[in-house]
Amino acid sequence: MDSSLQALVEMTRTLGEPHRDYVIIGEGNTSHRIDANSFWIKASGQQMHNIEADGFVAVRLDETLAIIDNPPPTRDALQAAMNAAKIDDNLPTRPSVEVTFHAMLLSECDVAYIGHTHPVAVNQIMCSARAEAFAANRLFPDEVVLCGPESVFVEYEDPGLPLAVIMRERVRAYIAKHNEAPKVILLKNHGLIALGQTPTEVLNITAMAVKAAAIFVGACAVGGPVFMSPEDVMHIYKRPDEIYRRQQFVD
Ligand SMILES: [Zn+2]
Asked: Which residues make beta-bridge pairs with 40?
């Protein structure tokens, strides 16, 4: 098997380990860029914790991105377009319903691996009135180092193509503001997306976002969170020794 597909299988299984409380049953999906115009995406209905290589489908990037630019008029036409983007037409599996946002993020953010999960710790905030405040702020230095100076926040949208369309707008606004791609995307009433160059980076970002979520909830219970100032956040983010540390976490 292709070693990068094997790495995707292992990353997906790790994200799905029951003790982490990131996903249950068929929740979550992952992807990996194969080359300029193709990527692996988890197939619809697969469980993450015991997934095998045949639980992934290779699809063409340009055809999947075209779905976002020219949305098919009906649900059946959308399903047909997603299936038509498969590289191997004979495969019985179909790509995850979230294949469009994976294509968009692999392209817009120029990352190699994506992990999308529904962690309990994160979703207790995403399903609360403080969801946007959690995304926009940082609580402690290692959250800044791993997760970036802020997270992209996406309001609730129907999973699938409508979510990909609104997420692209939010991601482009983040890139215009920060001059670089985000590490974390938070989806209101839905979940978390971690973007990385390696499986290790996706796992580390997910773990740190989940830790920050647990701390945020605890801080809300003892009088309310006290966020780092924007100056302190950017100071940590730009410190050469922290940039060096951040690179060590990627490999
Ligand atoms: Zn989801």
From this structure: 32, 58
Distance 236 CA to ligand 1 centre (A): 31
Q: 56 falls in which pLDDT band (50, 70, 90)?
A: very high
Please tell me the pTM assigned to this model.
0.96
The full set of domains in the chain, from first to last, is 3-248 (3.40.225.10)
Q: What is the largest CA-CA distance in the chain?
A: 57
Centre of ligand 1 to C-alpha 35, Å, is 25
Half-sphere exposure of 172 (CA within 13 A, CB side): 8
The model's pLDDT over 95-119, given as tens digits with 9 standing for 90+, comes to 999 999 999 999 999 999 999 999 9
Residue 174 CB contacts under 8 Å (≥ 6 apart), including other chains? 150, 152, 181, 182
Beta bridge partner(s), residue 196: 113
CA of 80 to the centre of ligand 1 (A): 21
